[in-house]
Amino acid sequence: MKIRYSGPVELHEPVHRCQYRVIYADTDTGGVVYYGNYLRLFEIGRTEFMRSRLRVSYRELEAQGIILPVVESYVRYKAPARYDDLLEICSSLGGYSRISIRFHHEIKCCRSGRLLVRGFTIHAATDRSGSLTRLPGGLYSGIGRLAESG
Amino acid sequence: MKIRYSGPVELHEPVHRCQYRVIYADTDTGGVVYYGNYLRLFEIGRTEFMRSRLRVSYRELEAQGIILPVVESYVRYKAPARYDDLLEICSSLGGYSRISIRFHHEIKCCRSGRLLVRGFTIHAATDRSGSLTRLPGGLYSGIGRLAESG
Amino acid sequence: MKIRYSGPVELHEPVHRCQYRVIYADTDTGGVVYYGNYLRLFEIGRTEFMRSRLRVSYRELEAQGIILPVVESYVRYKAPARYDDLLEICSSLGGYSRISIRFHHEIKCCRSGRLLVRGFTIHAATDRSGSLTRLPGGLYSGIGRLAESG
Amino acid sequence: MKIRYSGPVELHEPVHRCQYRVIYADTDTGGVVYYGNYLRLFEIGRTEFMRSRLRVSYRELEAQGIILPVVESYVRYKAPARYDDLLEICSSLGGYSRISIRFHHEIKCCRSGRLLVRGFTIHAATDRSGSLTRLPGGLYSGIGRLAESG
């Protein structure tokens, strides 16, 4: 399984964009969003990417017995998000194989357009017992079509 | 099921005490612990109360098919906890019935001894399907002995 | 300062409604939203209530030196929210004085319409040093007009 | 500033070890610790590493006007931690310069000894305005002595 870190973290078309308003709960005493909470935003981004671009609800995927646990995450923090900022979460496919998917993420400030954070998450496909398994055929071919269309 | 709010939130002996160090993740941009995060500390308190005073691991209780979901929580915030503060979580039994347990909690600053937060959580006993059920006999009698010993 | 718990937790018109999609981060190993995380949803609800109904951004209020720390919170958990559920957060004014505001909150499942959670938060008005202070005149009269209009 | 990802994520002596008990709040509906919450554990690890090995409290550092915001984080998830697991957080210095520190982290299951997670965080030194600044002389030389002693 060769799904480890390599290459730049860039967005590829199609990119899914959604918005998120920072609340107090997301921030820390440094006056900025806590560094671990961007992984929440990455989750929102990839879930909505799957729903809108791949027509797959992760909840339904789970109901079929397919889990996509995160095996690696990487975040580059360039500038902080602050309380009440409206953020744009941009997500795209970063790579894939029969047994894994990689998502790329960027988070921007809607007001200034500034890039705040970028990073990736890599997911293995497993069954409920945690054993590696192949992505369902329909999802795999959907990812392939999307990757070619970009 | 009459397990709703009533009466003062006071600790009764025996009280279980454990310590917690505030991290950045717990705080918010106001420079204090986020108000929702005290419910994490209440969870730590009641879990360790059960482990040390009732000789029950909540994990084992679950393995037996007994769940104790929270049905009510109340928190009174008197003074803020701040980053790197060492806190004392004080937990005691606040009441019980065949199908419910109530815990009382206080959180103090170890350095100053000041009371920061107090509150309660009320838990119903259910089976895995979510139906109300009786507390296991051993746990119920253990709670009874503890309540009388205080 | 008489701002302690009393009376039923009911919504009063005008009610502000907004939606929230449950993510993995919100849930726990019990398969439901963690009990402390509903206080995040209450925060979203009251912030958007203030923005849309009182024309006040809490960020701007803070910039003027007015803080509204939570002094009490209460939650009644009636049924669990689960992963990927679309929730409706309903928020209304529950009471007010020269130095405090009380918000009432209900959280419903959008699909089933079922009431999942209700509760309140009470906020004191303080200056940056934490001393009790009066609500700004404009905000106070705005709250009064809203309370009468309901 | 060359402080980007490179090389293996391995622990170097001296290693600081501390324990953490997983609570419900840390877990998700998948029955395991949520992937973003390991960054909380990394924070605990590096804070206690600094306190015990470098004799520096991060709170005091901040009081002197020195902030160490995270500029990069990486996590490799090898096996999941579960509710009530007692974890060992192992932290060591992974690199340093006049203006940055890199920490390496491993998280193990105390019961089985199994390695669950490894990763790093890279921190820039800034002043309160966010401008890059040099680490205080005492801290920098302390880090140097530690790095040579390993």
Could you describe the 3D structure shown?
4 copies of one chain form a homotetramer. The first copy, chain A, has helices spanning 38-53, 58-63, 137-149; strands spanning 16-21, 70-77, 86-97, 100-109, 115-124. Chain A is an alpha+beta fold and 150 residues long. Chain A has one domain: Thiol Ester Dehydrase, Chain A (Roll), CATH 3.10.129. Chain A has a 5-stranded antiparallel sheet. The first copy, chain A, is globular, with a radius of gyration of 16 Å. The two termini of chain A are 25 Å apart. Chains in contact: A-B, A-C, A-D, B-C, B-D, C-D. Strand 2 of chain B pairs antiparallel with strand 2 (70-77) of chain C.
Brief rundown of the structure:
Chain A is an alpha+beta fold and 150 residues long.
How are the secondary structure elements laid out?
4 copies of one chain form a homotetramer.
Chain A (H helix, E strand, L loop, with lengths): L15 E6 L16 H16 L4 H6 L6 E8 L8 E12 L2 E10 L5 E10 L12 H13 L1
Antiparallel strand pairs in A: 1-3, 2-5, 3-4, 4-5
Key phrases:
Thiol Ester Dehydrase, Chain A, about 150 residues, alpha+beta, 5-stranded antiparallel sheet, homotetramer
